[in-house]
Amino acid sequence: MRTKPLTILTGINRTSEPPSGSMILVSDLYPAMPNTRTTFLGRAPGHQARETDFEQVIPLSTPKLPQGPGFDTYVGALTEEVGTLIEQIRPDAIHAQNVGFALSLALTRTAGTVPVISIAHGTEVMAAERSTAEQEAMLEVASASAAIVTPTAVLADRLDRLTARRFTDRIAIIPWGIRLGDARVRDQPFTGSRPLSLVHAGRLDDNKSTVTAIEAIALTDEPHRLTVIGNGSLREHLEHRAVELGVRDRIHFEGHLPRAELWSRLTDFDAFVFTTRGLEAFGLVLIEAQAHGLPVVYSDLPGVGDILGGSGVPYPPGDPSSLAVALDELGQNSHRCEALATASLINARRYNITTTGRLLRELTLRVIF
Prior knowledge:
Layout (H helix, E strand, L loop, with lengths): L5 E6 L9 H9 L6 E7 L13 E4 L11 H19 L3 E5 L4 H9 L5 E4 L3 H8 L1 H13 L2 E4 L2 H10 L8 E3 L23 E5 L8 H8 L7 E5 L5 H10 L6 E4 L4 H8 L4 E4 L9 H8 L4 E4 L4 H5 L4 E3 L4 H12 L2 H15 L4 H16 L1
Parallel strand pairs: 1-2, 1-4, 2-3, 4-5, 5-6, 6-7, 8-9, 8-11, 9-10, 11-12, 12-13
Helix pairs in contact: 2-3, 3-5, 4-5, 7-12, 10-13
């Protein structure tokens, strides 16, 4: 049995203000790993993570560039910087977040004899499906990895196809999790037929398809109210759409909330509305809502029903009419709301971040030894 702490080098190469789902995940994940010391490479401001989340946080200094002209030069400079850090830190293992993004390329190119586990978050899979250059970068990182972690079978299959099924035997599925102990369960009873108080939280972009919820509110028979929490490029468009549909008085927009504040607000609502219409790597926000005792009405993307364990209310992605019907039916049946809330709590217990940490640590030890 290993007695000394396992040392891991990892990082996410982006400034995250507000923090991304991936950043929130790793901030929870690595402190949840037993007998492990983690060095995190990040970006200012705040190096993306609270200072207490990792034993050591190192800000990267190489100016960042996206894919396009100058990208290879940028990756070369980043690789040089990361290589120096690996020599200094001498980790037992490297966890390359986002398979194929710049930092994962730099880490795998300079890992030497240090084993690498690459971890897919979904954004890089969507990028590789759009771009040959991104796909080639993903293939390079996957080739250099002793194992490739994804949170769902659906994401595993998409990544497997993008890498020509050359590394199928390296892919391991480890579901994500949350800090279940921090969740406060909704204690308000569901009382008969009435308009619902609904919440939607996440980035306001095309893939999250918040517009589906706004258009559904305009089609419901009951005057349900929707609170939209989050920022993004489509905020102004969504507000205009609510005005066009005559439901601006029933939709409340708020900016991004820190997770602790979001969690404290979740129990104020009757149900959570999930509207993503494209790839969703895992959907941690669904588990967060369930852990607080909220029924979830969700776009029926591949794999989402499996994550929810049959405890939510599905509707076809991007279909506001079907969502409107689902919301009205839910509002008319308090017994169903209670049953879904109970099922939500039971399902959420499957996704404790401590389990994710234990499984990833066990995988790391296997590739080391």
